[in-house]
Amino acid sequence: MTQLQFNNALLGLQDKLLYYALSLTSDQEKAQDLLQETFLKALTYRDKFTQNTNFKAWIYTIMKNTFINNYRRNVKAKNTFDGSNNDFHLKFSKDKIYPSPDSFFSSKEILKNIHALEDEYKVPFTMFLDGYKYKEIAEHLNLPLGTVKSRIFFTRKKLEKALKDYAN
Hints:
There is one protein chain. By secondary structure, this protein is an all-alpha fold. The chain contains 8 helices and no strands. α3 (28-44) packs across α4 and α7 crosses α8.
């Protein structure tokens, strides 16, 4: 496919891609941005397109993956730690209403209860709090993935029970 054919095929899909971007983002401006980013990636990685394959599917996949990556990046940015010594206070966006600070558990009390757990629960839960993914924890501890998930779940339940006196 020549550069001219590639560009014409890309421009021919513009309206359909914009409609697809609108279905993903539900916002006109974000859809335009997604379309522009998709075009940029398609042009940048033109050499990755394999001749005699489905061009339309290739472009739609670029758009879908771009949307997913942007969504994950935005979620991660909203849930970053504030860098203080107290890792339990997350940086929340200011436009939402959250419980007052006196309704949150004391971090010392939470840590005390975590450290009181048996190692089989404490180690996976602590790793989870440190940002490890379930799969990474399972590989590191040489445990099945389901076991790691259930131990973290049961640890949460144990902590809820131990800290119920602090609940509102």
